[in-house]
Write a sequence for this structure.
């Protein structure tokens, strides 16, 4: 409401034609933010293949990705929440475990179709509670999903009695866990299919478009006539459905399920998303980036394991990478302004 | 430049000499000198954008002048807002700058808490705050958090905060904008009491009657220049408005569009909302209706409440298209029924700056650019290219991020995205603010084209020449109501300003 306090002429962002030192720095940051993960992932794989003993074998590589798949499935789903500008969904940790326990526990008693049906209902409930609280009631996503994590894990422990569920050793779930197409285990096939489907949803459907718009500028999107709460709700539902599928895959490959089996998934998925270069401020990011983030973190961890570097140092490396990725994102944004 | 010829009332307390301030290429304050004496109330008037607030921020050390200097009792002021405060200059901001969760006492003392070893001496704090409140003569419970106080009381707390610092100069920027007439009278009487005790007061207001009721001298700013400085006895309200507007009105030849208004398309009745106190308004097909008035008069608030962007407390809005009337309850219903809204703040509300022009244009048109909710990228590119061409986007590259364009081109993108929906009602709030002259002309052409094609157009503008140039009818809003309605032929800068500033319109002789 001031009159002349702000400059009358809105400054135009400079085209990067002039090259002073600050422009060069801005251009470099932009380049890292936009292309960094592609180049670094490729370099890391080449490096590992040449210098790390035991990396470049089919057995090792399929094992790496087989382990990474459930996290990857969670991460590609959660990418929707991050791009919508709502930081993350912590409760995926509860969602994956709940889905896995239902998948084995309920199918032991009532068969697979009923187990899957129940798991879908539970996933929709998670998505609805998180999405309504964050989208419609404008609550902070971190706090809301922290609450649903506690409640969800608490309910799961209480209802499951904390026990470990085993599928029958010759049952269909075990068989599912053994499926391979060529060298690819089922988990990786599921991840690839999920990534393709979700990339299509994000890039080519009106819903995905609105998710990107909401993350980029929520108020402008609202003023274009979009129900932004509904879009946020949709992002949480997609995340919940992906977490559910991750729970099935996780249960299938060990043929067991327990409430603690997904501990750390929420942060590992977020780490992959951020390292992939999806902006924590919302609006910018892609499913492919998240996949590359998963690959990068998994390959790096594998290199460290093969080189007998302790788990503590592996964690430090991941932490440093997250810090680097977030800094590049923030600095690139600032340089662009 | 005329100088006052009367004898000085007291010694000069604060003076600004040859102040120049530029923002980018634009000169906000151009070689302005003023001096204020002890015990004097010094009025400062001018249109929106004349440079008043900028000048005040310079006096208070918040902005650094590009040229010239500010002196307090002969000593040059250096070192920003803190130094100015220490030198005895207190500014009461146009926007309230209180911490809502803290109490009145805490807010009054914020930044100058009496402390011992880092702990606030609570009793002392309350005592000083209570003294300040007593000084300005209002009843406020200082232990209540600010959020529980009315807007008017918050304004008084803000003034108490300034007074508690025992300033030599008190600067008030539009302090009565949110006050009722009774509260305004109280405030004016209080300022006169303070001045009688020797305090120098700089009083900025759009409201001419207030200037005449308390000021000793008045300076007129226009386009950053000090036009004239007069003793209040040397001027009249009429004369002051003339000097604020400045252009020779008789020679202002306005070319009006041949307008041929059809049926009423947009109709608002009894709109109430915070800052809006019962506005009725119709816009016909093919007609451009302008909303004039001062910043803060309630124009933007009216538009946003009527369209459902912000909640309204009462009133109905009806949109009639193709003989069918629909009551509009929500903003999304408004959009569905052919309303387009181009907001005041284009960078925060109008565009997704880090998305492409094509994406921005596609957003409100997504339904027609997709089949079964799958987007058609080729169709989007073609659609966006056509619209970018029709609004004259330069360069016409729809894959660039919207944020890379200049203000004028960004506004063209905002207009383009709504053009695609062929709106029946289009509401534009400050359509050319921060836009260069060339783009401004093009945007005006687009607005006229829309009306010529039968849209009902409602324009809010603080840019008087623009408002007069575009509008077939001008409603002047003051204090949340329509203060007067002028046909395109009778509206001129003076009649609009007079209505806006609270004067009565006298028939021209």
């Amino acid at each position: 409401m001031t009159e002349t306090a702000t400059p009358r002429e809105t400054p135009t962002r400079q085209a990067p034609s002039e090259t002073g030192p600050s422009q060069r720095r801005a251009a470099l940051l932009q380049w890292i933010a936009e292309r960094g993960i592609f180049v670094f992932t490729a370099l890391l794989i080449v490096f590992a293949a040449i210098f790390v003993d035991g990396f470049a074998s089919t057995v090792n590589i399929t094992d790496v990705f087989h382990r990474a798949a459930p996290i990857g499935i969670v991460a590609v789903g959660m990418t929707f929440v991050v791009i919508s500008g709502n930081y993350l969904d912590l409760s995926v940790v509860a969602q994956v475990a709940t889905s896995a326990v239902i998948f084995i526990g309920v199918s032991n008693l009532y068969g697979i179709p009923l187990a899957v049906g129940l798991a879908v209902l539970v996933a929709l409930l998670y998505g609805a509670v998180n999405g309504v609280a964050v989208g419609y009631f404008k609550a902070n996503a971190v706090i809301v999903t922290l609450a649903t994590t506690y409640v969800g894990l608490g309910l799961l422990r209480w209802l499951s009695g904390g026990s470990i569920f085993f599928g029958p050793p010759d049952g269909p779930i075990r068989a599912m866990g053994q499926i391979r197409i060529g060298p690819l285990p089922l988990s990786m096939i599921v991840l690839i299919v999920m990534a393709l489907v979700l990339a299509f949803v994000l890039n080519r459907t009106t819903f995905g478009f609105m998710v990107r718009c909401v993350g980029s500028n929520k108020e402008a999107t609202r003023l274009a006539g979009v129900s932004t709460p509904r879009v946020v709700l949709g992002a949480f539902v997609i995340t919940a459905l992906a977490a559910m599928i991750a729970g099935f895959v996780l249960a299938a490959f060990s043929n067991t399920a327990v409430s603690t089996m997904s501990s750390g998934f929420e942060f590992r998925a977020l780490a992959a998303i951020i390292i992939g270069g999806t902006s924590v401020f919302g609006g910018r990011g892609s499913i492919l980036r998240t996949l590359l983030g998963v690959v990068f973190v998994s390959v790096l961890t594998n290199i460290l394991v093969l080189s007998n570097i302790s788990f503590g140092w592996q964690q430090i490396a991941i932490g440093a990478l997250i810090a680097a990725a977030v800094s590049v994102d923030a600095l690139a944004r600032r340089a662009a302004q | 430049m005329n100088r006052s010829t009367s004898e000085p009332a007291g010694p000069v307390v604060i003076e600004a000499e040859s102040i120049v301030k530029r923002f980018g290429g634009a000169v906000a304050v151009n070689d302005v000198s003023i001096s204020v004496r002890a015990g004097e109330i010094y009025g400062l008037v001018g249109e929106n954008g004349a440079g008043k607030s900028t000048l005040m921020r310079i006096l208070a050390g918040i902005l650094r002048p590009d040229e010239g200097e500010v002196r307090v009792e002969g000593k040059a002021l250096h070192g920003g807002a803190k130094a100015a405060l220490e030198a005895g200059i207190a500014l009461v901001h146009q926007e309230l700058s209180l911490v809502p969760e803290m109490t009145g006492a805490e807010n009054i003392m914020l930044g100058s808490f009496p402390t011992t070893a880092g702990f606030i001496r609570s009793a002392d704090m309350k005592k000083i705050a209570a003294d300040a409140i007593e000084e300005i003569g209002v009843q406020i419970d200082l232990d209540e958090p600010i959020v529980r106080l009315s807007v008017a009381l918050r304004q008084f707390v803000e003034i108490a905060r300034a007074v508690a610092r025992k300033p030599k100069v008190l600067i008030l920027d539009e302090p009565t904008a949110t006050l009722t007439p009774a509260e305004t009278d109280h405030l004016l009487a209080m300022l006169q009491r303070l001045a009688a005790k020797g305090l120098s007061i700089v009083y900025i207001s759009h409201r001419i009657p207030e200037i005449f009721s308390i000021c000793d001298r008045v300076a007129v700013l226009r386009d950053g220049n000090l036009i004239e400085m007069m003793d209040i006895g040397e001027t009249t309200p009429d004369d002051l408005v003339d000097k604020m507007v400045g252009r020779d009105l008789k020679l202002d030849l306005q070319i009006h569009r041949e307008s041929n208004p059809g049926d009423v398309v947009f109709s608002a009745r009894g709109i109430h909302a915070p800052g809006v106190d019962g506005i009725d308004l119709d816009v016909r097909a093919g007609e451009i209706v302008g909303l004039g008035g001062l910043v803060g008069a309630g124009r933007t608030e009216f538009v946003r409440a009527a369209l459902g962007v912000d909640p309204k407390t009462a009133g109905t809005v009806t949109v009639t298209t193709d003989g069918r009337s629909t009551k509009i309850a929500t903003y999304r219903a408004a959009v569905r029924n052919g309303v387009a809204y181009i907001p005041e703040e284009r960078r925060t509300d109008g565009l997704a700056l880090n998305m492409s022009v094509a994406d921005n244009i596609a957003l409100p048109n997504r339904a027609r650019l997709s089949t079964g909710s799958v987007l058609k990228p080729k169709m989007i590119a073609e659609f966006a290219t056509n619209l970018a061409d029709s609004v004259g986007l330069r360069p016409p590259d729809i894959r660039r991020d919207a944020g890379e364009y200049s203000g004028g081109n960004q506004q063209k993108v905002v207009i383009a995205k709504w053009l695609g929906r062929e709106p029946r009602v289009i509401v534009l709030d400050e359509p050319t603010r921060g836009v260069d002259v060339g783009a401004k002309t093009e945007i005006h052409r687009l607005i006229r084209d829309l009306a010529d094609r039968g849209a009902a157009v409602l324009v809010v503008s603080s840019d008087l020449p623009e408002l007069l140039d575009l509008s077939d009818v001008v409603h002047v809003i003051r204090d949340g109501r329509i203060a007067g309605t002028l046909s395109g032929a009778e509206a001129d800068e003076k009649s609009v300003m007079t209505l806006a500033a609270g004067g009565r319109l006298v028939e021209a002789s």
Remarks:
- Chain A touches chain B at residues 1-13, 15, 204-207, 209-210, 212-213, 216-217, 219-227, 283-284, 336 (CB under 8 Å).
